[in-house]
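During the reporting period the student researcher (J.K.) took over the structure-prediction task from the postdoctoral fellow and processed the backlog of single-chain submissions. One of the processed entries is reproduced below for the supervisory committee.
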Amino acid sequence: MQTDDASGRNWPTLTAELHSTEHLIVWSYRSWAMAIQSGGDQRWRLLRYEFRRQFGSACGEAALDRFSALMRQIGANARAPLRYHAPCCPCLGAQEVCVISLVAACHARQWSLARRIAACLVLADGVGAAIAAASAFADMMRRHLPAMPLRLTGDADDGIAALSPAGHAAAGAAAPASFTIH
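J.K. obtained the following structure tokens:
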């Protein structure tokens, strides 16, 4: 774990430090980005299979639709190009931690915290839509998966800004719809 010097909070830096529901979000984020970037049918089949396995055969497609809606909202209004690691990589990036934290805040119905986290990922015009999409996915998770930890408290000094991906747009246009892989 990495400790943010300003706040003393611990942020996960490796997938091994994640709760199972957080790991699912990171793996899904990475797999979704790879499927979008490559147009790979095999990656989409793998995503559908995993969502059916995690959410049940009756709800798997709906859960994947909600997750995809979240990723589309983030991508459409991103402050920086979306970056991700390969699905099997043990490292975590700032945007990956932000997405986990956004879903966790919505899962816990911590709306002020969710707004602060969403503002790290997307431009001001996209914050509401990102929260709505994250909340819809979190509601599905709440019904089917174990509760996920809320790593942030919403305190003024909790270091949310430290999770903010480098290269934020100061204001104005969203970042180009591109992905960077590590």
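The committee noted the following: The two ends are 19 Å apart (CA to CA).
J.K. will present the remaining backlog at the next meeting.
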